[in-house]
Amino acid sequence: MKLEKIAALVGGVLKGDGSIEISDVRGIEDAGKGHVTFVAKKKLLPLLAESRADAVIVDHEVSTDMAQIVMANPMLAFAKLLAVFHPEAKPEPQIDSRAALGKNVTLGKDVTLSQFVSIGDNVSIGDGAILYPGVVVGPDCRIGDDAVLHPNVTLYRSTILGNRVILHAGAVIGADGFGYVPDEMGLHNKIPQIGQVVIEDDVEIGSNTCIDRATMGCTTVKQGTKIDNLVQIAHNCTIGEHSILVSQVGMAGSCTLGHHVVLAGQVGLADHVTIGDQAVLAAQSGTFRDVESKAVQGGSPSVPAVTWRKYVTILPKLPEMSRKIKDLEARLKAIEKRESDS
Amino acid sequence: MKLEKIAALVGGVLKGDGSIEISDVRGIEDAGKGHVTFVAKKKLLPLLAESRADAVIVDHEVSTDMAQIVMANPMLAFAKLLAVFHPEAKPEPQIDSRAALGKNVTLGKDVTLSQFVSIGDNVSIGDGAILYPGVVVGPDCRIGDDAVLHPNVTLYRSTILGNRVILHAGAVIGADGFGYVPDEMGLHNKIPQIGQVVIEDDVEIGSNTCIDRATMGCTTVKQGTKIDNLVQIAHNCTIGEHSILVSQVGMAGSCTLGHHVVLAGQVGLADHVTIGDQAVLAAQSGTFRDVESKAVQGGSPSVPAVTWRKYVTILPKLPEMSRKIKDLEARLKAIEKRESDS
Amino acid sequence: MKLEKIAALVGGVLKGDGSIEISDVRGIEDAGKGHVTFVAKKKLLPLLAESRADAVIVDHEVSTDMAQIVMANPMLAFAKLLAVFHPEAKPEPQIDSRAALGKNVTLGKDVTLSQFVSIGDNVSIGDGAILYPGVVVGPDCRIGDDAVLHPNVTLYRSTILGNRVILHAGAVIGADGFGYVPDEMGLHNKIPQIGQVVIEDDVEIGSNTCIDRATMGCTTVKQGTKIDNLVQIAHNCTIGEHSILVSQVGMAGSCTLGHHVVLAGQVGLADHVTIGDQAVLAAQSGTFRDVESKAVQGGSPSVPAVTWRKYVTILPKLPEMSRKIKDLEARLKAIEKRESDS
Q1: Which of B16, B47, B286, C189 is deepest in the core (most CB within 10 A)?
Q2: What percent of chain A has pLDDT over 70?
Q3: 3 state DSSP class of C117
Q4: CATH number of A100-306
Q5: Each residue's pLDDT tens digit, B214-251
């Protein structure tokens, strides 16, 4: 592909020879002849002098012999070009004869149902959806267009998936919420979980992640949100648009997240917590209190990240501080004694 | 269903018109005509005035125009009524022709084996058990009456499940414990894990939870215990009756839990730890020491929750405390100098 | 098996009657007639007097009436003897007619493909490999000799498994790394993940563990490393030889671990962190900084374990320390006032 075509494709301004033939996109250090590379971080710019790439995508014109494409977001261009040069292999649409379909299943155009897929009664599956082997879809589910369900995914009954939803292998959507009432004998009586899970368009969910259905009503993941592997989302949670939940995050029941929230790895939320729009919780932090919009917090229980970063540097000094306090007390007592003696 | 029948069913005392027809049970704010609602927490009582429900279940007689059912545990009544008005859909019992059965498999009455279920040799399955698609049962397993194994559950060989056990999708019971012996060359030699897992009656286990089999002997989960999603239980653990393990709890090998223990989300236990009856560990806490019966602990390493709640409020003040100590030292030194100078 | 044969087999020196017939190996307290036991920890030695075993494996000659086998590593002997007396049951090698094979699949000798296994195009599977029911292998994967893939394991395309690799049930290898570029509208644009996962020889991976493939290049787990259940390894990580990752560890993208590293339960690593050879991170610790070879760290963020163990004992005293500082301030101020007054 000619460089000028690439410039047009990523929406950048070409500086240099647009007729160069480009065969791939690579990182600065890996790029060679016929490759376009990119500089997404300022600190990587010095590496450009050493790069053997034929062209570079940058966010401002730089001094180099290479052809350049200048645009605001070189990383975005990189993502687009990866998709161009390395298109994902998709299976040929077909309904494998070894897939098991229930009654009243509605299939869109160009659907792929692989071998050993199970589809319950009254399920509808949109155009272009791909269900890999071992996927199990309970009754009354609705799967949107171009959804991709990787191997061994389970949807419990009545789960709704929007368009272009991607579920990675082993994800479990719609299992019973964890709800019990203890009785006078100390037995835990199961509260029937009669709600469902709704996953909106363009959500991606990682491997072995679990999203429980609501006791009543919906557990909802809104449009564009991305969830990593091994995340736990309990019953009746609502996750706003375009949020990011990193691996091993755990959310207890009835939490509400705004849009563009970021929960870093292993974050924990107690039940009924609300996290405001664009708030960020640092890795391994946890909160049982609401967090305001745009707040950035860390620690467990979480506090503003600035505060957290300061206090953790003091922790190793605690034994010394404790000793100093004892020392101060002794010396002060001595002074007081001398005072009273004199 | 008439309200008087509902009162009898939940074991409450009816105050008001027992002939009202009730079609569903709902939360206070969602309830409308033909619905019975409930007040499980005192603070929700004021909402009752606004509720459009026809009847309410309360733990003491309240002043309202609605018909009332008075009983000790309204939440328990709610759970019972949900099951009445929203009975869980169950598949018709049948052995699907696409299920794969080993030799010498014993099936009770009314068993459901769905398509793509695999049953190993010498397995017995109790009356009314339901195995959803993709379930794999290793040889020599025993599954109790009315057990439910959701899709893609795996039981390794020799696993024993009691009656009414529920395993959610992707749960793995009986995999090898994580045991190795390093040799003089630094290689990790696998210790064969020849034990098994025993899950007693009325245990429910969440999606993608893992319970490893014992090196020798049993990993045991006793009667009535409820385990959430993505929990790790290592080899040779024993979990007492009616305990609650919330999502993402991790227990290392050979831990022992008493009865009615509560481990909140993301709690971690080091190996060989014993947690006494009715003890509670707060979310994200961890311990490498035994915890006494009825203790309530928090933090990592855990301490009594009262202590933990106090010290975490001081953490953000550490930098200030450190500065103050320095200031005190300087001022004290100055006083001491003035003393010695004078 | 005669005791003298056992001594030869484990490479120990026999003291006593080598003609004793041994039928099993057991722990000290469980051993009885016909059993050999072992003492792996000094503190267990006193139990030997009570043991009903016929022979014992010890790391130095002890005073006992039993026959003894003396060798450096009795625990290793135990592991070997467990394998001898309790050999793992393996299925008879066969390609089940209900397994689904793609085009151009290469199978070694004595391969087991169980029912409901799916193999993609261009896959090669080595001699003696066992794939249990529900395993899904994407196209272009390579599986080494004697590899064991337990039920419902998923390999995404192009995954490479070495010889004798063991993957426990529900493990997901090679799913897309969690990589997105936000655009000016706040949408998360997926970065295609075109790399792969390489698992070297003798690696064992626990149930429901997830290892994502690299954005470009490889996510690599080197020879002899053992990974427990529910672990998350993100894209582009490299894990050195003979390391141990305990359950629920989470590693963000592009981390590098040396050889013989130990990450205890629930440890978290931020992205791009390097952990040196033989370093150890204690349970529930986390780091966003590199850790040196042989370092032993604890806490979150982690510090040397010695430091961590000291400061956590002070934490419960923080409220008292805070009060003391206030008291010191008041008393100091009083002295200063008296000084200036006099």
Answers
A1: B286
A2: 100
A3: coil
A4: 2.160.10.10
A5: 999 999 999 999 999 999 999 999 999 999 999 999 99
Where is C172: in which H helix or E strand? strand C172-175
Q: What is the Cα–Cα distance from A98 to A94, expressed in whole angstroms?
A: 11
Phi then psi for C290, rounded to 5 degrees? -65, 155
Taking only Cα atoms into account, the Rg of chain A, rounded to an integer number of angstroms, comes to: 27
> C161 phi and psi, to 5 degrees?
-115, 130
DSSP letters of C47-115? Answer: GGGG---SEEEESS--S-SSEEEE-S-HHHHHHHHHHHHSPPP-PPP-B-TT-EE-SS-EE-TT-EE-T
Give the count of beta carbons closer than 10 Å to the beta carbon of residue C274: 16
B208 half-sphere exposure, CB direction, 13 A CA radius: 40
For residue A43, give the DSSP letter. G
Count CB-CB contacts under 10 A for residue B289: 12
List the one residue out of C258, C215, C217 whose CA is nearest residue C240.
C258
Q: Which residues of B touch A266 (CB under 8 A)?
A: 266
For B326-342, write each residue's pLDDT tens digit: 999 999 999 999 999 98
User: The tokens 């540097």 sit on which residue?
Assistant: A313
d(CA A326, CA A332): 10
Q: Give me A299's structure tokens.
A: 């620690």
Q: A3-85 falls under which CATH superfamily?
A: MurE/MurF, N-terminal domain (3.40.1390.10)
A150 is catalytic: no
Backbone Cα Rg of chain C: 27
pTM of the model: 0.97
Are the C-beta atoms of residues A272 and A290 closer than 8 Å to each other? no
* Chain C residues closer than 8 Å to A207 by CB: 154, 172, 175, 210, 212
pLDDT of residue B305: 98
**In whole angstroms, what separates CA A186 from the centre of its chain?**
39
Cα end-to-end span (Å), chain A: 94
H-run or E-run covering A328 = helix A318-341
* C3-85 and C100-306: identical CATH topology: no
Distance (Å) from the C-alpha of residue A54 to the closest C-alpha of chain C?
Answer: 19
Question: Can you tell me whether residue C297 is helix, strand or coil?
Answer: strand
**Predicted pLDDT of residue C342:** 82
Closest-CA residue of B relative to A286 is B284
CA distance A236 to A222: 13
List C-alpha distances in Å: C150 to A107, C112, C136, C258: 32, 11, 11, 28
Q: Are B137 and B123 in contact (CB under 8 A)?
A: yes
Decide if B234 touches C, using CB distance below 8 A.
Answer: yes
DSSP labels, A290-316: -B-TT-EEETTTTEEHHHHHHHHHHGG
Instruction: Give the 3-state secondary structure of residue B341.
Output: helix
- The secondary structure of residue B214, as a DSSP letter, is P
Q: What's the length of chain B?
A: 342
Give Cα separations from C116 to A70, B293, C71, C160, C286 (angstroms): 51, 47, 47, 21, 40
Separation between Cα atoms, residue C330 and residue C328, nearest integer Å: 5
> How many whole angstroms separate alpha carbon A209 and alpha carbon A168?
8
**C121 CB neighbour count, 10 Å cutoff:** 16
Q: In which element (H, E) is residue B116 found?
A: none
Q: Would you list the DSSP string of B51-72? A: ---SEEEESS--S-SSEEEE-S
Angle between helices A318-341 and C305-314 (to 10 degrees): 50
Strand partners, C55: C36, C67
C118 to chain A, any CB pair closer than 8 A? The answer is yes
Domain residue ranges in chain B: 3-85, 100-306, 313-342
ipTM: 0.96
Strand partners, A130: A112, A148
Query: Which chain C residues are closer than 8 Å to B250 by Cβ?
Result: 230, 247-248, 265-266
For B226, the enclosing helix (H) or strand (E) is strand B226-227
